[in-house]
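I have a small job for you when you get a moment. Can you supply me with one protein entry, sequence and fold together? It will help me judge whether the discrete encoding reads sensibly. Write everything out right here, beneath this request:
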Amino acid sequence: MTLSIRSFNLGPLQTNAYLLQGDDPQRAVIIDPGMNPGALLRAIEHLTIEAILLTHAHFDHIGGVEAIRNAKGCPVYLHALEQDWLTSPKLNGSLMWPEASPPISTEPAEYDLAEGQQLNLIGHTFKVLHTPGHSPGSVSFLCGKDLFSGDVLFRQGVGRTDLPGGRERDLYDSIQNKLFLLGDDVTVYSGHGPKTSIGYEKANNPYIR
């Protein structure tokens, strides 16, 4: 079964939102619908959205949640440690950057995510890896050989840990002891910037040695 992956670069922080489709092109999953989601909304106009999956609840990753949920009636999945962040502009960070975002508040997520959980969506299985450090409830989604890492691991970079709930030790533990245990051929789709691979980051990421 093939997984079609389209990325949308959304909002002032250029957040990657991902639109995933399986063998049935009419059904899709969205990962991290960021701010200014007009292009994404147009792309899903005639699609059934089975779920919105959130890697974490920082404002630049959740800015499009309500618009898409209202348009498509789809449930939102988020780690339990950040359930309160959707409803709180202070916790999701939108109050901290008024030049980048108005205060963002959405309805709570319908479903919690947890380590090791498996979600069966669009004919594929998404395994949940709890990968804290950038934020306490950060998760990565593994679907076959494709990993959606949010703001944990980037091409030759790692997520910042100076935001509320961030912790450098947790971030490096998540990368070294979870993500880097995956196969070198796993493609990494990050929350910002270009895609990469586990093998490339093991060999070239200057932050992880």
User: Anything to note?
Assistant: The mean pLDDT is 96.
